[in-house]
Amino acid sequence: MGNGLIKDIWLLSKRSVQTTLRSPFSFIPNLLISMFFLVVYESGLSGISQLPAFDGADYLAFILPVSVVSAAIGGAGGAGQGIVKDIENGFFSRLLLTPASRLSIVLGPIIAGMLQLFVQTLLIIMVAFFMGLNVETGFFGIIIVLLIAIGWGLAFAGYSAGVALKTKNAQAAQAGTLIFFPLIFLSTTFVPYELIEATWLKVAATINPTTYIFQSMRTVLIDGWQWWEIAQGFIAIAIACTITITFATVSAKKAVSRG
């Protein structure tokens, strides 16, 4: 049973990856936008790193997580879009007639989306190194950043897949991911928490899980191995993944019951 599930997930993930590779323009714009954020924000806002609250931190390392998280949000939509396409062309219905695990039908596109995000994040980090990025924790710090990015992407992909299975509509699945973009800007996106002056924005940043994702990545990149700061990002990921994957699973069961 276990081997059958793993095989089903592998085959459906492989199919989703191959589908993505055949349509590179489905992910290239998102990658370019994320790199655009990195280049523009570094060149236009790096001067504020001279403020005392930054404590001499490199602004490139400070803004890099914003580019990575924007890639995670944009890339997550691919999981939902892939499921909607399968529903519209009838492939999803044919899958339901096979012995393939229902869980693998959901996880295949989600895992493919995570792999896509992994490649995108690597490319973004490579560009950052060409721009002069210095990582306080070295190679293993980059591994932590990649793990955080993949975990956060998994949470977004689960939500995207859930919306796709619930609505069976491409526009709704795409629009569903847009609600996450405000999470980026209602956070410590451009300045540290200490420099946020508006009380309402401080409250929003405090309850916003993206704040803790940024904080974990920035700790690794700038401050070093401060374990509690890093752990908060993984806790946020665990909570978000539990919610979104559960949502996707429930939506999948309802989609299967409706045929």
TrEMBL record:
Domain ABC transmembrane type-2 stretches: 25-255
GO cellular component, one term: ATP-binding cassette (ABC) transporter complex
Membrane topology value: Multi-pass membrane protein
Homology family: Belongs to the ABC-2 integral membrane protein family.
Lineage: Bacteria, Bacillati, Bacillota, Bacilli, Bacillales
Entries under InterPro entries matching the protein: ABC2_TM, ABC2_TM_bact-type, ABC_2_transport, Nod_factor_ABC_transporter
Membrane-spanning ranges: 21-41, 61-84, 105-133, 139-160, 172-193, 230-250
Cell compartments where the protein resides: Cell membrane; Membrane
Signal peptide residue numbers: none
Keyword match Transmembrane: yes
GO molecular function: ABC-type transporter activity
Protein name: Transport permease protein
Domain of life: Bacteria
Organism: Pontibacillus yanchengensis Y32
UniProt keyword list: Cell membrane, Membrane, Transmembrane, Transmembrane helix, Transport
Record has RNA-binding as a keyword: no
